[in-house]
């Protein structure tokens, strides 16, 4: 791809542009301030690094309403989720592990790992909008060691009633792991006021650098380390904290928090106007929750009669970048388990397209996105013999 | 010329420029009013389906067009194949393999080989139907099974025959009765019914489709 073209980028859950100021602040920590945090008595470079990392930790803790000592830096949201699920269960008994069917694969795979190691597990289905049934959760919570229900889904944007879920966990005496990375800073979530034992957030989803994430671990909660070595972070994770990445993460959070209302309002406007525009295309169906029980940064629709990979590549050629849950786009050739869990047809799964909005997207882009998607879908439907006969 | 057997091409993840061109501006796309034969392979359920139209005169393929519901590789392989077969004699077209289609596009990612296979299968099935229509081959159980091998079972992603979904086939003159080992009324049955009906298009048979779920 040698022609530089103005793309409208709507794949922010996959990778997002790093905030300019965050990047600037990171740079010295690769060169003159290259140290990493040391132990109790570090040398000058270690002290400098420790200060920077702790500053980032404080910023992140404040954004969640928790204490800095409750934030553990990890390498990725996948690591955070593994630690929050497997690390918690291994340290807290052999009871049931309960999760929703639309958790991230790293959560579901962690649950599967536990079930292969003597933990009974229960994966709860969701309704057509992606909501977990609170009554079913209540029923299955008794005797649970851990409940893992995400705050919101990165693919369909549905926001769960995690206050109810955390109350249920508390009543059942169970731990509660909440993957909240897709909601982080898009919604106000005060962890201090919920019975959450561990929670996952990620740097790149708020325009910090890739390669760093965090796990909130509530004061007093015990976890079993998954990796062995000299434990630096919270006595449960070996390996040094990459100073520059932590600085970038902290700065990205700070920058977002500075204009939080403006950012979130803009994303919400973008979401609503894109959703409206796309749903005006004939035979297009919304995936996930309607209205405000959906994160501001997510639009997911299915264009029936057109296949997702073809839609994406053609849209890419015309300057729009998005994602799909179609089987053809995945390495495994399996359609998105999230869309299938909603009980939707094969056709809807294959035609699903995810537009994830970031803080750099401007609502003025929406008309062009709708125009391109509409022409792409029309062209592909024109090739489809079943479509032709329907019309 | 690209050798599809070499490691680097076989493992190619992205699409070639040529494939992208055939996808973005497909040649010979669209239905054909006066087709001699049509064929349908794949399944809506798998998001991978090709309908092929051939105009054959004196055993020469005069024109070929296609329609598709599928990914970029599906569209491109079908399109390039219609170009390849135009002007060919039927017995020549019989010899085309998925490798020829892959090579013609300058390579196809290995994970998408099944698209080229599907395109070639649609060609072979259309030619089978042509020979049955011309009275050179019998309309018998084997022929029906060949057609059913072109349809994917949404429940297993295998073709209907390999998936064990074809319980019984009875052919009596122009009457074809197929019993499928699946539940009627569900989404899978609905798409399979549409697919099977399309597959027999133009054969002028009385098609009876029965569903008998496995005990």
What does this structure look like?
The complex is a heterodimer of chains A (391) and B (215). With 391 residues, chain A is of the alpha/beta class. Chain A has 2 domains: 20-257, Type I PLP-dependent aspartate aminotransferase-like (Major domain) (Aspartate Aminotransferase, domain 2, 3-Layer(aba) Sandwich); 261-390, Aspartate Aminotransferase, domain 1 (Alpha-Beta Complex). Chain A has 13 helices and 15 strands. Chain A has helices spanning 20-26, 44-64, 77-91, 105-116, 134-141, 162-172, 243-258, 260-279, 308-317, 337-341, 346-350, 366-383, 385-390, and strands spanning 8-9, 71-74, 96-100, 121-124, 144-148, 175-179, 198-202, 213-217, 231-233, 237-238, 284-286, 298-303, 320-321, 323-324, 352-356. In chain A, the strands form 4 sheets. Chain A has a 7-stranded mixed β-sheet with strand order 2-8-7-6-5-3-4, with helices on both faces. In chain A, strands 11-12-15-14 form a 4-stranded antiparallel β-sheet. A two-stranded parallel ribbon of chain A has the order 1-13. In chain A, α1 (20-26) runs antiparallel to α7 (243-258) and α3 packs parallel to α4. The two termini of chain A are 37 Å apart. Chain B has 215 residues and is of the alpha+beta class. Chain B contains 8 helices and 6 strands. Chain B has a 3-stranded antiparallel β-sheet with strand order 1-2-3. Chain B is globular, with a radius of gyration of 17 Å. The model of chain B is unreliable at 1-12 (pLDDT under 50). The A-B interface holds A 305-310, 313-314, 317, 326-329, 331, 333, 335, 345-347, 349-350, 382-388 and B 15, 20, 23-24, 26, 29-31, 40, 44-49, 51, 67-75, 111, 154, 157, 187, 191, 194, 198.
């Amino acid at each position: 791809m040698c022609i530089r073209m103005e793309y409208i980028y709507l794949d922010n859950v996959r990778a997002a542009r790093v905030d300019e100021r965050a990047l600037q602040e990171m740079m010295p920590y690769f060169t003159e301030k290259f140290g990493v945090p040391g132990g109790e008595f570090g040398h000058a470079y270690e002290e400098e690094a420790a200060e920077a990392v702790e500053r980032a930790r404080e910023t992140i803790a404040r954004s969640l309403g928790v204490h800095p000592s409750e934030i553990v830096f990890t390498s990725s949201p996948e690591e955070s989720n593994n630690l929050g699920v497997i690390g918690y269960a291994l340290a807290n008994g052999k009871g049931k592990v309960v999760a929703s069917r639309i958790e991230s694969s790293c959560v579901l795979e962690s649950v599967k790992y536990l079930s292969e190691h003597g933990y009974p597990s229960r994966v709860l289905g969701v309704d057509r909008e992606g909501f977990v049934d609170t009554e079913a959760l209540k029923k299955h919570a008794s005797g649970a060691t851990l409940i893992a229900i995400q705050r919101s889904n990165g693919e369909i944007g549905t926001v769960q009633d995690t206050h109810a879920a955390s109350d249920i966990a508390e009543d059942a005496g169970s731990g509660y792991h909440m993957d909240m990375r897709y909601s982080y800073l898009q919604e106000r979530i005060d962890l201090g006021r919920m019975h959450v034992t561990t929670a996952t957030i990620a740097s790149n989803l708020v325009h910090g650098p890739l390669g760093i994430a965090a796990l909130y671990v509530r004061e007093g909660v015990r976890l079993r380390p998954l990796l062995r070595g000299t434990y630096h972070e919270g006595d449960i994770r070996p390996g040094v904290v990459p100073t520059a990445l932590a600085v970038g993460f902290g700065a990205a959070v700070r920058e977002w928090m500075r204009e939080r209302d403006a950012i979130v309002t803009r994303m919400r406007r973008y979401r609503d106007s894109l959703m409206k525009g796309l749903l005006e295309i004939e035979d297009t169906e919304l995936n996930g929750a309607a209205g405000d029980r959906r994160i501001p940064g997510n639009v997911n629709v299915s264009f029936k009669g057109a296949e997702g990979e073809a839609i994406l590549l053609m849209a890419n050629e015309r300057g729009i970048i998005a994602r799909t849950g179609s089987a053809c786009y995945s390495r495994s050739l399996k359609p998105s388990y999230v869309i299938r869990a909603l009980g939707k047809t094969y056709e809807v799964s294959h035609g699903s397209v995810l537009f994830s909005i970031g803080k750099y997207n401007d609502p003025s882009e929406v008309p062009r996105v709708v125009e391109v998607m509409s022409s792409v879908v029309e062209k592909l439907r024109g090739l489809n013999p079943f479509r032709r006969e329907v019309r | 010329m690209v050798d599809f057997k070499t490691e680097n091409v076989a493992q190619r993840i992205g699409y070639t420029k040529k494939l992208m061109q055939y996808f973005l501006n497909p040649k010979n796309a669209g239905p054909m009013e006066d087709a001699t034969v049509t064929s349908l392979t794949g399944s809506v359920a798998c998001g991978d389906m090709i309908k092929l139209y051939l105009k054959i005169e004196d055993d020469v393929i005069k024109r070929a067009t296609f329609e598709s519901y599928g990914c970029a590789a599906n569209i491109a392989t079908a399109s390039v194949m219609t170009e390849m077969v135009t002007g060919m004699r039927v017995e020549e077209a019989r010899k085309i393999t998925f490798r020829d289609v892959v090579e013609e596009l300058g390579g196809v990612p290995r994970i998408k080989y099944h698209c080229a296979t599907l395109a070639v299968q649609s060609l072979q099935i259309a030619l089978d139907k042509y020979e049955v229509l011309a009275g050179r081959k019998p309309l018998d159980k084997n022929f029906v099974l060949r057609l059913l091998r072109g349809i994917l079972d949404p429940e297993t992603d295998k073709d209907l025959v390999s998936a064990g979904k074809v319980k019984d086939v009875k052919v009596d003159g122009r009457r074809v009765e197929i019993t499928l080992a699946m539940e009627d009324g569900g989404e899978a049955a609905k798409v399979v019914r549409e697919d099977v009906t399309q597959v027999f298009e133009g054969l002028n048979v009385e098609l009876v489709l029965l569903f008998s779920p496995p005990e």
